[in-house]
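Predict fold of Alkyl hydroperoxide reductase C; 187 aa.
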Amino acid sequence: MSLIGKEIEEFAAKAFRQGEFIDVSSEDFKGKWSVVCFYPADFTFVCPTELEDLQDQYNTLQDLGVEVYSVSTDTHFTHKAWHDSSDAIGKIEYTMIGDPSHTISRIFDVLDEEEGLANRGTFILDPEGVVQTVEINADGIGRDASTLVDKIRAAQYVRNNPGEVCPAKWKEGAETLKPSLDLVGKI
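Predicted 3D structure, encoded as tokens:
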């Protein structure tokens, strides 16, 4: 069942952020745009490349009013150990949420029950905590965080301009569409 258009269920968890352990809950996803990026496990291979790439986009995302959260089924302690031992992960400034109970991974429907690990899932939530986009990749396929910037700009544009939609490959400032009977069969 799709999570698009649904508000995320309540949860509470421990996280690691910039040298500190913090509490995070579903309430943190409200009041601003959020990117929630699930990955299988700390101390692995594709995961650090993705998380470092996400950090490379972090300032741009922050400029768009977006907060970033990464989530795996590891603990917040493991996140700290990985942060302290990996050059790639040591750069991360965003919140790394621990989900050893698998609660958050189940809420977002990315848990591989057999493995006990999260799939590679990326979610964009609006300021009400409602899911606007979902991307889930197979374990061996890394994601490109630069695509999030355009997706968020499009989601923000559509939210701020009811009645307009963004076509494929839309970039900020480009022409949008106004769905109507006149457009049917003419695109």
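The chain has a mean pLDDT of 95.
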